[in-house]
Amino acid sequence: MAYPTVPCPLHIFEPCYRLMIRRCMETVTKQFGMCIGDPVKGFADYGCILEIRNVEFFADGRSVVDSIGKRRFKVIQHSQRDGYNTADIEYIEDQKVIGRDYAELLVLHDSVYDHAYMWFNSLKQLLKTRILSHFGPMPVKDPDPKANPNGPAWCWWVLAVLPLESRAQLPFLAMTSLKDRLNGIRRVLTFMSRTRSR
């Protein structure tokens, strides 16, 4: 699962994806889409555009790709090209929130951020170190949570590090309501806290 603003290191070894990465490197944007697998359609209806920051090629053809999530999308049409999946997509963004709804959203945003920060700091040091080396530090709280059309970076970081299966993560990627995403994160954090305290 890939998320906006979150680093996504990839080990590429299948010939079709080696071809895809080579083609991406020849484009101006150096971007490709990533979706989780789906047993019926081949891949899910929602995903994230990744931007390649660096590629390290090995003599045997494998590569390690340093990429980072950019934008969320909805798949309009599934297809294939030269053995790898392709799609027609449309970008999705969070709905705009104004007035009293925005004031309520700010309170929720700050509360869930604090909850996530406390949860992360309560983890065992070894696990925290692993998370930090893979995903970097938790992003700071956004002064304006609606400034980014994908929502606050810290939300995506928390979703990336929470121990959730891909199927449980996917609905968060598809949500266009920041309020719903924050409430969902809060429910997961509350469940994690209760489970640990037993």
Automatic annotation (TrEMBL):
<dbReference type="InterPro" id="IPR015947">
    <property type="entry name" value="PUA-like_sf"/>
</dbReference>
<feature type="domain" description="Lon N-terminal">
    <location>
        <begin position="1"/>
        <end position="193"/>
    </location>
</feature>
<dbReference type="Pfam" id="PF02190">
    <property type="entry name" value="LON_substr_bdg"/>
</dbReference>
<dbReference type="InterPro" id="IPR046336">
    <property type="entry name" value="Lon_prtase_N_sf"/>
</dbReference>
<protein>
    <recommendedName>
        <fullName>Lon N-terminal domain-containing protein</fullName>
    </recommendedName>
</protein>
<dbReference type="GO" id="GO:0061630">
    <property type="term" value="F:ubiquitin protein ligase activity"/>
</dbReference>
<dbReference type="InterPro" id="IPR003111">
    <property type="entry name" value="Lon_prtase_N"/>
</dbReference>
